[in-house]
C-alpha cells in the first residue's frame, strides 16, 4: 500500500496480516523524516513551541504567586529549536522501527503510478524500481502555499514548515535587547518607555515578523512568536479563522491584539523586496471600502506565509461553510494520477473520494489532507486509515464519520470547538430555531495574576425544538483542547442541554462553566459569571 504521510494505516494492515509496502510522497521541497506533516512540521513542533510561549506568560504571573525570579528573563531560540528538533527526530526513528517490527516494507523512493496496480519508484541516485499491489493507498499530504501573484513571495518568505526547523533565532525584540542591560531596579521605571519605543517604526522595522494570513496556522505561528518575546504582526485579507465560529474568532484575535500582536485588517500584499540592510520591504493594499484603497509599505525582518485559496459555496467537513481553505497545496503533482484515471478536484487539486475513501479508480484510495472534502487534521486521517485497513482486510464494514470532529486552535488564548458554529446552525436550522447559551467567565488562575479574562468565553448552540440537542460547543480559555476532547464524546452521543445542565461540574475548573451555562443570547441578559 504505497503511501507516506500517515503511518497508522500501514501498521494496522500489518497487524491484520496483509503485505504492506510504503513509499514516500511525490515531489518534495524540504527533507522530512517519517511521520508526515503532524510529526515534522505540524502538531508536534507547534504544540511544543506553544508550550514555550505559555511558560513565558507563566513566568510573568509567578511573582504574584510568591515566586522570586531573578531578572531579566530572556528566551533562547536555539535551545528550544534543538530540543524540539531532537524530539521530532526521535519520533522519526520510532516510526521506522515500528514499521520494521510490523514487517512493513519501506522504500525511500519517490513514487508515481504507472497503472492502477503498478507504482514506479525513483530513489535519490536515479535507481528505478516497480511495485505491484492489489490496492494502493495515497496519503501524501500537502505543502504550504505561496502566493503566485506577489513578486518576491517565494524568494524572501518562509512558511510554518521552515519556522519549526530554524536553528537560529528568527529575530529578537528590542525589549529583550534593551532590558537585558538594565539593572533590576530600573526595569519598572523604564518598562513603559521601552515598550513604547518597541512599537515605533525606528525599532520595530528591523526586528519584526509579518505573518500573512489568519488561518489557524497563521494565528498559531504569530501567537508563539509573540509569546517568546518576538514582535509579530498579522496581515488579514478579510476575516480570521474563516470556517470557524466568527464570534469565537474575534475573541481569539482580540486577545492576541491585547497581548501586543498587531493586525492589519483588510490588507493584501502586493510585493516583497529585500533591501541592502537585509530587511524585507513589504508593500500592500489596504481595502477600506469598495471605493477606497490605500497603498502602504513597511519593513520586516521576516515574512511567513500562511495563506489559503479562495473557494466559495462549499461546506466544511459537511458542517461549516468554508471560503478560505488552509494554506497547503496537496502533494498530487508528479503522481501521474489523471493518467491512470484518478480524478482530481479542478479547483483544489485534491483527490476526489467517495465515502469509503475510494477514488475514481476502484482499487486506489486516498486519505488525509490529500483527499477532497476531508478535514486537514491528523486524527481524522489516522482514524480513516485504520478503518480503511480493516475494510480492505475484510474484517469490518465501518466507514469514517467526519461529522462533529473536534479541534483546537493553539493560539495564546486557546480555542476549542466541536460541531456547528453559530452561523452554520443559523443557516441550517434558521435563527429562530436555535438556542444559544453563553457565558463570559474568569479562570481562577487569572485572578491573582490579574490577567485580562475578557476574552474567556463559552457558548453552546442547541436545536431549540424538542430535547434541545447540542449542535455545537465552543470554548476559549486555558487548555481548550483538553476541555473539548471530553465534551466531544458527549456531542457525538447526542448530548442535550438538559443532560449538560444535569452534569455535576468539577470545581474549580474552567470546564465546569459549560455545566453551569444558563443564559441565552435571546434573553439579552448579562452573561458574565459572578462568584467563584
UniProtKB/TrEMBL annotation:
Residues 33-385 form the FAD/NAD(P)-binding domain. Keywords: Disulfide bond, FAD, Flavoprotein, NADP, Oxidoreductase, Redox-active center. It comes from the Eukaryota. It holds the Pfam family Pyr_redox_2. InterPro entries: FAD/NAD-bd_sf, FAD/NAD-binding_dom, FAD/NAD-linked_Rdtase_dimer_sf, GSHR/TRXR-like, Pyr_nucl-diS_OxRdtase_dimer, Pyr_OxRdtase_I_AS. GO terms for biological process: cell redox homeostasis; cellular response to oxidative stress; glutathione metabolic process. The keyword Phosphoprotein does not apply. The keyword Zinc does not apply. One of its GO terms (cellular component) is cytosol. SUPFAM superfamilies: FAD/NAD(P)-binding domain, FAD/NAD-linked reductases, dimerisation (C-terminal) domain. Belongs to the class-I pyridine nucleotide-disulfide oxidoreductase family. PANTHER family: GLUTATHIONE REDUCTASE, THIOREDOXIN-DISULFIDE REDUCTASE. This is Thioredoxin-disulfide reductase. It comes from Electrophorus voltai.
Amino acid at each position: 500500500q504505497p503511501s507516506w504521510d500517515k503511518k497508522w494505516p500501514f501498521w494496522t494492515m500489518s497487524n491484520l496480516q496483509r503485505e504492506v509496502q510504503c513509499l514516500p510522497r511525490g515531489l518534495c521541497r524540504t527533507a522530512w523524516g517519517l511521520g508526515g506533516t503532524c510529526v515534522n512540521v505540524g502538531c508536534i513542533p507547534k504544540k511544543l513551541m506553544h508550550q514555550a510561549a505559555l511558560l513565558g506568560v507563566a513566568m510573568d504571573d509567578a511573582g504574584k504567586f510568591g515566586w522570586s525570579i531573578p531578572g531579566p528573563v530572556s528566551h533562547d531560540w536555539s535551545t528550544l529549536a534543538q530540543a524540539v528538533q531532537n524530539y521530532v527526530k526521535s519520533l522519526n526513528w520510532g516510526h521506522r522501527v515500528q514499521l520494521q517490527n510490523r514487517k512493513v516494507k519501506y522504500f525511500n523512493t519517490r513514487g508515481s503510478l504507472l497503472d492502477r496496480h503498478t507504482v514506479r519508484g525513483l530513489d535519490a541516485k536515479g535507481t528505478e524500481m516497480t511495485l505491484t499491489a492489489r490496492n494502493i493507498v495515497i496519503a501524501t499530504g500537502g505543502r504550504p502555499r505561496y502566493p503566485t501573484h506577489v513578486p518576491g513571495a517565494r524568494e524572501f518568505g518562509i512558511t510554518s514548515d521552515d519556522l519549526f526547523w530554524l536553528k537560529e533565532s528568527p529575530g529578537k525584540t528590542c525589549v529583550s535587547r534593551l532590558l537585558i542591560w538594565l539593572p533590576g531596579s530600573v526595569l519598572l521605571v523604564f518598562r513603559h518607555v521601552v515598550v513604547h519605543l518597541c512599537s515605533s517604526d525606528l525599532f520595530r522595522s528591523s526586528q519584526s515578523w509579518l505573518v500573512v494570513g489568519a488561518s489557524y496556522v497563521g494565528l498559531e505561528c504569530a501567537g508563539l512568536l509573540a509569546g517568546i518575546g518576538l514582535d509579530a504582526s498579522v496581515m488579514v485579507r478579510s476575516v480570521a479563522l474563516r470556517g470557524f465560529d466568527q464570534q469565537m474568532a474575534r475573541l481569539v484575535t482580540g486577545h492576541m491584539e491585547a497581548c501586543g500582536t498587531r493586525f492589519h485588517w483588510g490588507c493584501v500584499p502586493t510585493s516583497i523586496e529585500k533591501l541592502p540592510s537585509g530587511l524585507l520591504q513589504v508593500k500592500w493594499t489596504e481595502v477600506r471600502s469598495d471605493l477606497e484603497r490605500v497603498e502602504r509599505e513597511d519593513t520586516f525582518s521576516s515574512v511567513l506565509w500562511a495563506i489559503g485559496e479562495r473557494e466559495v459555496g462549499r461546506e466544511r467537513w459537511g458542517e461549516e461553510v468554508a471560503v478560505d481553505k488552509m494554506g497547503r497545496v496537496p502533494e498530487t503533482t508528479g503522481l501521474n494520477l489523471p493518467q491512470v484515471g484518478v480524478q482530481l478536484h479542478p479547483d483544489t487539486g485534491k483527490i476526489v473520494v467517495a465515502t469509503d475513501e475510494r477514488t475514481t479508480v476502484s482499487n486506489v484510495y486516498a486519505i488525509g489532507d490529500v483527499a477532497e472534502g476531508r478535514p486537514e487534521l491528523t486524527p481524522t486521517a489516522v482514524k480513516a486509515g485504520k478503518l480503511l485497513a480493516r475494510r480492505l482486510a475484510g474484517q469490518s464494514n465501518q466507514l469514517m464519520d467526519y461529522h462533529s470532529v473536534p479541534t483546537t486552535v493553539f493560539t495564546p488564548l486557546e480555542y476549542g470547538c466541536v460541531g456547528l458554529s453559530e452561523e452554520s446552525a443559523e443557516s441550517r436550522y434558521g435563527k429562530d430555531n436555535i438556542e444559544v447559551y453563553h457565558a463570559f467567565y474568569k479562570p481562577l488562575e487569572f485572578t491573582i495574576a490579574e490577567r485580562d479574562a475578557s476574552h474567556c468565553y463559552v457558548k453552546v448552540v442547541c436545536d431549540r425544538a424538542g430535547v434541545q440537542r447540542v449542535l455545537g460547543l465552543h470554548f476559549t480559555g486555558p487548555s481548550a483542547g483538553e476541555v473539548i476532547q471530553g465534551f466531544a464524546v458527549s456531542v457525538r452521543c447526542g448530548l442535550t442541554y438538559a443532560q449538560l445542565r444535569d452534569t455535576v461540574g468539577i470545581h474549580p475548573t474552567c470546564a465546569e462553566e459549560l455545566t453551569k451555562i444558563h443564559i441565552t443570547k435571546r434573553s439579552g441578559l448579562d452573561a458574565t459569571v459572578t462568584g467563584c
